[in-house]
Design goal:
The chain is built from four helices and four strands; from the N terminus they run βαβαβαβα. The chain is an alpha/beta fold. The protein folds into two domains: 28 residues, no CATH class; 101 residues, Response regulator (Rossmann fold, 3-Layer(aba) Sandwich), CATH 3.40.50. The N terminus is likely disordered. This is PTS EIIB type-3 domain-containing protein. InterPro entries: PTS_EIIB-like_sf (IPR036095), PTS_EIIB_2/3 (IPR003501), PTS_EIIB_3 (IPR013012), PTS_sugar-specific_EIIB (IPR051819). GO terms for molecular function: kinase activity; protein-N(PI)-phosphohistidine-sugar phosphotransferase activity.
Length: 148
């Protein structure tokens, strides 16, 4: 009798998959969930936002707040934090760059990197640190819309 692998479910060859596990039941093969097909696969394009600060610590918190605000609104967004050192790599494929207010003295060099990557730039307002991310998300949407 020939066995047919039917995917990553309890009915697949190789046993059941633990709930929440991303591994398939056979040989630990990972499924690529980014290439979905079939009904419901037509999604809005994902907006990619990069938030930069000096070392990447405060931008991590800002990115988390922006990501939560996007999820609450049902907006597909990939929000990533970056430090100044790895900004050039982080800008590849980005739609918007949000700069922490404490980096305004170095804004010229950051803008130059963004221009080379064709990414619009905006400075986060100082009060954004205390907000829940909605104001920063609105800012990103505004500069992405202005570019289009």
């Amino acid at each position: 009798m020939r066995r047919i692998f039917r995917g990553c479910g309890s009915g697949s060859v190789g046993g059941a998959r633990r709930p929440g596990s991303r591994l398939c039941g056979v040989r630990g093969i990972r499924r690529d969930r980014s290439k979905r097909t079939g009904p419901g696969s037509a999604r809005r394009p994902m907006m990619r936002i990069v938030v930069v600060c000096g070392a990447g610590a405060s931008s991590t918190f800002a990115a988390l707040r922006i990501r939560r605000a996007a999820e609450a609104r049902g907006i597909a967004a990939d929000v990533r934090a970056a430090g100044e050192q790895n900004l050039a790599d982080a800008l590849e494929g980005a739609d918007a760059l949000l700069v922490g207010v404490h980096l305004v003295p170095r804004l010229g060099s950051l803008e130059q990197l963004a221009i080379e990557a064709s990414v619009p730039v905006a400075v986060l307002p100082d009060e954004t640190r205390a907000l829940d991310g909605d104001a920063a998300l609105d800012l990103a949407i505004a500069i992405i819309g202005a570019r289009a």
